[in-house]
Design a protein that fits this description.
The complex is a heterodimer of chains A (331) and B (154). By secondary structure, chain A is an alpha+beta fold. Chain A has 13 helices and 12 strands. Chain A folds into 4 domains: 94 residues, Reverse transcriptase/Diguanylate cyclase domain (Alpha-Beta Plaits, 2-Layer Sandwich), CATH 3.30.70.270; 49 residues; 99 residues, Dna Ligase, domain 1 (2-Layer Sandwich), CATH 3.30.1490.100; 41 residues, no CATH class. The relative contact order of chain A is 0.09. Chain B has 154 residues and is mainly β. Chain B folds into 2 domains: 86 residues, 3-Layer(aba) Sandwich (Rossmann fold), CATH 3.40.50; 52 residues, no CATH class. Chain B contains 2 helices and 8 strands. Chain B is globular. The termini of chain B are far apart. The chains are: A alpha+beta (331), B mainly beta (154). At the A-B interface, strand 9, helix 11, helix 12 and strand 11 of A face helix 1, strand 2 and helix 2 of B. Strand 11 of chain A pairs antiparallel with strand 2 of chain B.
Amino acid sequence: MRDPVTLAIVVTDAPDLHGRLLATLHAALPRVGVLDPCAFACDLAGTEELLGAPSRVARNVLARCGRAGARASAGIAPTPFVARVVAERTPPGEVRSVDDGRAFLAPLPLDVLPVDVKVHDELRLLGLRTVGEFADLPRGSVFDRFGSAVARAHALARGEYGDMVRASAPPRRIRARRAWDDAIGSREQLVFALRVVVDEISGALARDGFAALRLELRLDREDAGPLRIERTVLPPTREAAALLRSLRWALEERSELGLVTGCALEVPEVEPARGRQIGLFAPDGARTEEAIATARYLRAKLGTGAVLRARVADEAARLPERATEWVEVIA
Amino acid sequence: MAAWIDPTASFDPIAAQRANVDLERLIVVRARGTHLALATAAALRSEGFRLVVVDVGDLAFGGTKIDDIAPALPSVRGSPAALLVIAGEPGRRVAIPTFFFERVAWERRFDRTVGWSFAVGRAHASDRALFCVTSLDGALADLGTRADPATVAV
């Protein structure tokens, strides 16, 4: 059985940095839960061998937060509630660790407990002033008089309620890079060279049980700036052949690629590897500009009068040819 | 967006509009012969379409065979678009999931043909789903499922 250890990080002076802090904590901690804006909790139980002692982890996290521009305080306690209260009562930049949550909470005012204002007033009318006095009440009596919500607060006051840290796994970055000594000028050679990168991405997706939904390819070029290509992979897949085919099609749409010296392929969006229904009739992600580009390509191949858009001019016209109009998609 | 590959120029915008097709989101490509596979593959490979329909038409009216789109079929895998092929008869070289449409009766009003009822089913399945569509309101009426379309009055 692992000893429960929760690390809470609270930032009070930089509410705008919530997103940045969350990303910072995701990079440093296994699972991060958001308690409130700029208040985070992480269940560190069982991570000591991997990450080190909780106090050391907390100092590392505070240093990272400091580099992100926020002065955070850290609290370590057996339960998330106590850890948060500890962090809120610790000066910025410092770490405080509490082993006995009930003893720590006992002298604090009742305001720290998450209960309704009316309940606070009622508890004061009963002569209770501190969390410790409230915690000393019999559990059954609290439940009978106030109900389950206040009974939960009573358990928090006794340092007993080991609420789960509802956390999300950090976003996984699946990325592969290659640099080539000799610049690649041929499209076919480039596709061949990309095969290795795609195989690496496919392996990473397979390990995590994911399928790629989007691909982002950046090609570093000797004679021009980087070329960025985005592809949507529908249905999502982790098959190297399908991913490479999608990239090859994208490359074939470019008339000139230049001299490519390196590439970075990233999967910014993944799905669990399973089937997916394509939204045929919903306003989906189909890109109008891509459709127009294809229409332009087909017009160049097929000539005028082949790529058209229909319009109903007069549904009640007596002659069928007057009822509709056909216009070139590409004028 | 959807692409409608139409080698016989038989696409009827009025019927499509009555069937609630948004013509602004439809591009009609009149590609014939070898260009049919080219246009189909280009539409499938594009990121711009979610549906590609190929109406190969009737050979007697300038249509082509379903087998002519075979070179484009590898593009279906990995394409963001679904491919729907409409043909008078099944192909010999291409193997794709196929549904057969059989006419049951023409719908007539005032001595004019305004629609038809038809049965849809898989090749080797006995069940057929029956539908009726008319140009009067453009609505598709679901007539239920029958085991044997021959029992339906024509």
